[in-house]
Design a protein that fits this description.
- It is built from twelve helices and seven strands.
- It is α/β, with parallel strands linked by helices.
- The chain has one domain: Rossmann fold (3-Layer(aba) Sandwich), CATH 3.40.50.300.
- Helix 2 links the parallel strand 2 and strand 3.
Length: about 260
């Protein structure tokens, strides 16, 4: 079967959000023998997880995307977990629907303040190569606004607006709360597997052993750079409406803000 004969380029799409355990989720899903991750193609893609078709690679064309994600066995479910997709325009999402008409879409949400701090730490890591964590502080200084613009904090935190654009094209989006994954990973991963048409308990013994091992692994943790109080409280006020809108729209409850403001996230 050629790539042109497959209904979807990506059978499973995770659209974010960034710093909400999407790497862990991809790693655990990929333990199932019926899922497929494309080959590591850095720097064109990001490892085997993020194809970045609509932000980095659109100029390469749809056939490139089809070929990248085409599994060697056509029954396997190809995955594209690119958090930047959550911010795509209506036009881009409509194109995604044409290329992936029956894809299972997953959107993992995280408290906007905690997610923003984690994202800023990741972007600071990229800027601070070679420095010890103790030497770096994220401060509310002249470069702070540039940092949050670079990290696209406001757009990535616009969960409700992002979801509604995607829901215009896909009517069965699985929305998860990162905090529920932390509290009960087994229950949440079973929900994800079921959404993708997979069964944890029906996995072959060797695959199940690998699944169990991956369930215990943390794939990516931000470097715990210090974040000063003024920076935290700026983000707190700026992102508070995003948090309220998200809790109302999805009926979820994020952690108390004092936990984030006290520890950083």
């Amino acid at each position: 079967m050629t790539s042109m004969n497959r209904e979807n380029c990506a059978d499973i799409l995770c659209i974010g959000s960034q710093k909400a355990s999407t790497s862990w989720l991809h790693h655990v899903l990929n333990a199932h023998p019926l899922t497929y991750s494309f080959p590591n193609s850095e720097p064109v893609t990001s490892t085997t997880k993020e194809a970045h078709f609509w932000d980095w690679n659109h100029h390469r064309g749809a056939d490139w995307y089809r070929e990248l994600l085409r599994p060697p066995e056509p029954e396997r479910l190809s995955m594209d977990f690119t958090p930047e997709y959550s911010m795509m325009s209506d036009k881009q999402i409509a194109e995604c629907k044409r290329l992936n008409p029956s894809a299972r879409v997953i959107y993992v949400l995280r408290d906007p303040l905690a997610r923003a701090i984690s994202a800023l730490r990741m972007h600071t890591l990229w800027r601070s190569e070679g420095k010890d964590a103790e030497q770096v502080e994220i401060s509310f200084d002249d470069g702070f606004l540039n940092l949050i613009k670079e990290a696209r904090v406001f757009e990535m935190s616009s969960y409700v607006a992002n979801y509604r654009r995607w829901a215009n094209q896909y009517d069965n989006i699985l929305v998860l709360n990162y905090e529920d994954i932390v509290a009960d990973a087994d229950s949440m991963i079973r929900k994800v597997y079921a959404h993708c048409g997979l069964d944890v308990d029906a996995m072959p013994q060797d695959a199940r052993a690998e699944f169990d091992k991956r369930m215990q692994k943390r794939v990516w943790a931000s470097v715990p750079y210090s974040v000063d109080r003024d920076a935290k409280y700026f983000l707190y006020g700026w992102l508070w409406p995003k948090r309220q809108a998200c809790e109302k729209e999805f009926g979820i409850k994020f952690q108390e803000y004092r936990d984030v403001l006290g520890s950083g996230a």
